[in-house]
Structure of ETS domain-containing protein:
Amino acid sequence: YESAGTSAAHTHAVGFAFPEWAYKPESSPGSRQIQLWHFILELLRKEEYHDVIAWQGDYGEFVIKDPDEVARLWGARKCKPQMNYDKLSRALRYYYNKRILHKTKGKRFTYKFNFNKLVLVNYPFIDMGSGRGVPQSAPPVPTGGTHFRFPPSTPSDVLSSSEELRSPGMFSSVARRMARGSVSDCSDGTSTNSELEEAVGADERGVGPERAFRGLLPPRLPHDSLFRGPPRAFPVSPLPGPGGLLAQTLSPALSMTPTPHLPYTPSPSLSSPMVGSHFSFNPEDMKHLLQAHTQSVYNYHLSPRAFLHYPNIVIPQPHRPTPEKPAAQHLHGPPLPLRHFCLCLVCGLGNVSYVEPISDIESEEEVEVTDISEEDEPNHNDDKGDFFTPMARHYHDQITNECQANRNGSSPSAPLPPHNNHDEDPDDDEVFKTPATPPVGSGSLAFPLIGLKTEPGQAAPLSPGGTRCIPLKLRFKRRWSEDQKMEADGERDEAEDKKVRAEGMEKLEGKERGRRGEEVENGAGRGGGVILGLMLPPPPTQRRASSELQRATAQLSLENTGC
DNA sequence: CACGGAAACA
DNA sequence: TGTTTCCGTG
């Protein structure tokens, strides 16, 4: 039923529900097979596999405790009985270039997802705290465990229908595709296992909508369900009144679809931002968030687009957040994600329409951004700024698109207006590129924030092809760079860069790629962000009795019956 | 054990 | 495109 779109969120384990699609393994367009990294994430989420693979110290870092077993499981899933760690690891190494992963040097069988930057940076209210050293079972959680609540009663289903995570490669690709509207339904591609899982998920879902988002996801959720969250997270469901607005307001990409997204009605009043500690998905909070976002944007001179999607939400100032870590403790997932999630959530929720045309232009910006990434100096003052990184944006877009797609129908691909399709720019640009938006109606702005869009200086609104001011880009870059630094992995991505750059170079051909330096090294941008979101472990509190069932299912799913 | 090229495959 | 398979190198 997932495919149908009904399910929307798995509230169950996770307090937070993310739309399934968000996490769904998607593969390249067309094929929906599960990808290795999705699978890894899936295993990491499940307690049953903690002896085989588990999160380790840093955010996103995991250790394969039993390589042979992991390989076996993977082989089972892919019906490749001959699979072994040597082969699996080769596949993993391919992720280096894609920046999905990188190797933790010196540690055997230890790899790390690249989402850090994104996540951390973006979610000020969540404090990652030190993730290191956290026990697997309880991966380091963001210190500022915030309580996120989804607005009660939001229907979620819409979202769920199409779920796939798109780009394995990265956010970028995902974003693009998403933007375009190519959404696919998870149902088809996913393995039977998924289905099973889904079923389970349904079980779990019973949970009420308002689950607080305390921690990260619980390990057991099926990968598919990761994001499924309660609709709340991504407001897709139609709400009365605002719904209409929402629909319009949706991100440009989304705009195509008429369906309303936001569940909550934006209220004009924005009070002080909630400080880190509590963040709920109420209209109010969301507003704050948005507002914050907006501010940050301004502060950083970012282009309006950055926050378009977030309606009146005010975000808590990063530094101030009061850390409350309530639920976070039990997280099974990597710590990072929270922030991202928040963002995503926000975005989803808040998606407001941004009038600005995103398409091509965006790409440009993005590109710029990329460059920046490396260059910039790190400013840690996140204060407001960090919130929206390009990635975040993309993520949003993605989500939105997904949502849209979902709404439209579960059918997998929802066509969006093609924008730039250069589709593939291999480069990261993608990452930054925002989905193109349909010029048209999307523009209607529902919220005040929108006005911001006109940012001083740059904002060039509108025209799809419109161009962006460079300055903004630069600023963006700064931000981006900052974010990256936030990442703080010592490791960095040199490795990543290597090839990436090379690739990029190649790619330059067609477009103006000069910016190459960009490659966001970490990839955090890309895949990472998304991933993170996916990753979030559900608050322990929610665990339910059904665990056994889940497990069983999980097992099945992992095992892949199809073969 | 890790890396990455090359070729094959779906 | 994303591995899977094989393999030489360090």
